[in-house]
């Protein structure tokens, strides 16, 4: 009889533990829905352009649920231009001229602004590429790392 009580108690404890961990799992899922990438790009007239890109949403989400912010700051530029801040939506494109299986993210700002293209190098690295989805010669200098 004690064994039955012990098993029933263990089952109840396991059930309660499962319920308790469910919100935590939901928080982890929500955390993965936002990805932040940072890096410094070369600049002809300054020490570099610090780029911070935050992408919200999943690749399989509806287009309106995939949003981004992009912030660019120029370090030690002689003309001290203002920071550039964009927000908009991102799309998933497949393929580049050199890699038909590559994943490319197209970031389109709301209103005016340049469309940015980033190729996913791996789970933690994006690389800025041109609008024709070609990599630049100095591609390793154009990479952002996931934070």
TrEMBL record:
Q: Which residues form the signal peptide?
A: 1-20
Keyword Acyltransferase, does the record have it?
Answer: no
The record, for PROSITE patterns, names: PROKAR_LIPOPROTEIN
- One matching Pfam family, short form? NlpE
Q: Which UniProt keywords apply?
A: Lipoprotein, Signal
Q: Disordered: where is this region? A: 73-99
Q: Which InterPro entries does this entry report, sorted A to Z?
A: Cu-R_lipoprotein_NlpE (IPR007298)
Q: What is this protein called?
A: Copper resistance lipoprotein NlpE
């Amino acid at each position: 009889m004690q064994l039955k009580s012990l098993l029933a108690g263990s089952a109840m404890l396991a059930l309660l533990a499962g319920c308790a961990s469910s919100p935590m799992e939901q928080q982890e899922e929500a955390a993965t829905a936002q990805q932040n990438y940072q890096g410094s790009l070369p600049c002809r007239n300054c020490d570099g352009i610090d780029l911070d890109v935050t992408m919200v949403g999943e690749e399989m989400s509806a287009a309106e649920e995939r949003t981004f912010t992009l912030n660019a700051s120029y370090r030690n530029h002689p003309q001290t231009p203002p920071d550039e801040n964009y927000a908009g939506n991102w799309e998933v494109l497949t393929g580049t001229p050199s890699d038909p299986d590559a994943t490319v993210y197209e970031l389109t700002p709301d209103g005016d602004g340049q469309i940015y293209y980033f190729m996913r190098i791996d789970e933690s690295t994006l690389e800025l590429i041109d609008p024709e989805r070609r990599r630049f010669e100095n591609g390793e200098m154009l990479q952002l790392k996931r934070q």
